[in-house]
UniProtKB/TrEMBL annotation:
Belongs to the troponin I family. It comes from Astatotilapia calliptera (Eastern happy). This is Troponin I4b, tandem duplicate 2. The keyword Transmembrane helix does not apply. GO terms for molecular function: actin binding. InterPro entries: Troponin (IPR001978), Troponin_I (IPR050875), Troponin_sf (IPR038077). The lineage of its organism: Eukaryota, Metazoa, Chordata, Craniata, Vertebrata. GO terms for biological process: cardiac muscle contraction; skeletal muscle contraction. SUPFAM superfamilies: Troponin coil-coiled subunits. GO terms for cellular component: troponin complex.
Amino acid sequence: MLEDEKEQKKLKRETTLRERVPPLQLSGLSLQDLQALCKELHQKIDVVDEERYDSEVKVAKNNKEIENLSQKVFDLKGKMKRPALKRVKISADAMLGALLGSKVKESVDFKANLKTVKKEEEKKEEVTDWRKNVEAMSGMEGRKKLFDAGQ
């Protein structure tokens, strides 16, 4: 199969060349005719070279652009930036409506679903006159009453 393909390509090339380039008839031409023919062939060669150069430059430019775009895509896949989020004030009912759509018709009371926690009250010492506290600590309280009763 490969040999057949090679043979077909070769035949196709030969037929294309025969169509594009007519065979040269050099016999019987004078020196001036040969020089004119050479100039004409050089002009055709120059045109073909210019087209080839232009197409090569275009291909190189496209390849470079493809490489740059591929690099950009690779870089973007590696770094995903999070957008800055804004705070939005929204009620719980509006949030549920937005998330669940029209399925929720009644308002949900979140406070009713919370557990109640009893706080232990801290033992607060009564702030009283510091002199009474000092007398009670010293054990002199009873003697003061006796002293006051004696007067």
